[in-house]
Design brief:
This protein has 96 residues and is mainly α. Helices cover 86% and strands 0% of the residues. The protein has a domain at 24-90. Helix 1 (3-46) runs antiparallel to helix 3.
Length: 96
């Protein structure tokens, strides 16, 4: 096993982790965001909130939860992106 094959193997593992995270964690985060917003809407309906709630407070809750979902997903894939870029930087250039 030479150095180039080690870099290629690490590169494949890093890409696999990134793809798994994107294909599993992102839908889970989006589902929980959708579910929580549905629960807020149902609770608002049960408590007979007015239209002002949906145009004001509900939108603020959605913006905050949506922002948290984006930040959570970004920080969950950030180590994999850094590892991928680090491997690419230290990999030997291929000869053609």
């Amino acid at each position: 096993m030479n150095v180039c094959s080690l870099f290629l193997n690490q590169n494949e593992n890093t890409m696999e982790k990134l793809i798994v995270k994107i294909s599993l964690i992102l839908p889970a985060i989006l589902f929980f965001f959708y579910f929580s917003m549905t629960m807020v809407g149902c609770a608002a309906r049960i408590f007979k909130c007015s239209d002002k709630f949906y145009c004001g407070t509900f939108c603020w809750i959605a913006k905050i939860l949506g922002g948290l979902a984006v930040v959570l997903f970004f920080f969950s894939i950030l180590p994999d992106i850094k590892a991928f870029l680090n491997i690419q930087k230290h990999a030997a250039p291929s000869k053609k």
